[in-house]
Amino acid sequence: MDWMAGLKPIIVFAVILGFGFIIRKFLFLYLKKITGKTQTQIDDIITDAIKNPFVLWFAILGISIAIKTTNLTEKNIVFADKLLISLWIISFTIVVAKIVSGIINVYVSGQEGAPKMSSITQNAARWIIFGLGILILLNKLGISITPILTALGVGGLAVALALQDTLSNLFAGFHIILTKQIRVDDYVQLDGGQEGFVADVGWRNTRIRQAANNMIIIPNSKLAQAIVINYDIPSKDTGVVIPVGVDYSSDLKKVEAVTVEVARNIQKTVPGAVEDFEPFIRYNAFSNSSIDFSVILRAKDWPSRFLIIHEFIKQLKERYDAERIKIPFPITTVYMKNDE
Questions:
Q1: Contact 187/301 with Cβ under 8 angstroms?
Q2: How far apart are CA 104 and CA 99, in angstroms?
């Protein structure tokens, strides 16, 4: 009958594990139907996080119960239980870290069309959860965490003094994220003239991707002190101001009508233009060789303005040629004095 004694733990483990697979299948089919009807993403985040380790938890439970049906000594059973509890705490910590990271992502991203979450926010959430998980694990294993916390407090002061620049960048990164003045995917221009999309705000640097696909890497502390133009705040749509000049002999009413007509066509046909925006012009100067004015259009975002300007200049030149409206060359008239 010794083989029966050896087979019993295997049967117990197999039954519990199979039960876990069955529950997982039907439970998550039911949860999928429920979460599909809700508007919030939090329930989806939770179900996705616990779906994979769900069977692992049943496996841990099965091993724990199966061990108690063996002839192992009490000491070995206690040791095995500690290992299983440690494995469960580690897996549960990973699940909680995924859930918290996902919820923060939903909060930071906000409504539809909002930017993505930066890596510093994700990493900070994970560090805190994993740190708490380690402390709980040590406490469960009977290791006193009070001396560890004390050592961390004293050591933290020494580390803070040694890593002032690093910590300065770290806290500057948190400041950038929490104020939401610069967000991932925003189009920004630095006071040095560099501009591009914010690719990521890390624990030390912020990366800005230029239109040429180059990457600007700037320390967070420098970015926090810089003068930055964010073209996506308060909204992504932006005005497009194009300077134009016409000859002094031009009929200004006709110039305005023709120019606005071309601008309307641009607003309705060019990708990236705000279709319902009504463009207009404003005369602003008598220059040396022309009467100058500005044409005001509107783009859905800052990069779209380049195509709008490109198409507007082409169409306006073609239309001015057809209407015999002159765009004068810069000229200077020189009067020669004749002493005779």
A1: yes
A2: 9
In 95-219 the beta strands, taken as DSSP E runs, fall at 187-189, 195-201, 205-209, 215-219
Cβ burial, residue 261 (10 Å; 0-12/13-18/19+) = middle
- pTM reported for the whole predicted model: 0.56
> Do 52 and 134 belong together in one domain?
yes
71 part of a folded domain: yes
- Taking the C-alpha atoms of residue 81 and residue 61, their distance in angstroms, rounded to an integer, is 10
Cα(47)–Cα(65) distance, rounded to whole angstroms?
26
Query: Cβ(198)–Cβ(208) under 8 Å?
Result: yes
CA-CA-CA-CA torsion sign (18, 21, 25, 26): positive
Higher-confidence residue of 201 and 101: namely: 201
DSSP state of 141: T
Residue 166 covered by a domain? no
List the domain range (segments joined by +) for residue 151. 2-161
What CATH number should be reported for the domain holding residue 205? 2.30.30.60
104 and 249 in a single domain? The answer is no
Residue with tokens 């990366």: 207
Number of domains making up the chain:
3
207 neighbors 216 (Cβ within 8 angstroms): yes
- Walk across the sheet containing 291-299 and list its strands: 238-246, 291-299, 280-286
Q: Which one is predicted more confidently, 267 or 122? A: 267
The answer to whether residue 278 sits within a structural domain is: yes
**What confidence tens digit (pLDDT) does each residue in 198-211 have?**
988 887 888 999 88
Residues 243, 225, single domain; the answer is no
CB 177 within 8 A of CB 118: yes
Strand partners, 230: 188
Amino acid at site 316 = L
The reply to whether 246 and 310 lie within a common domain is yes
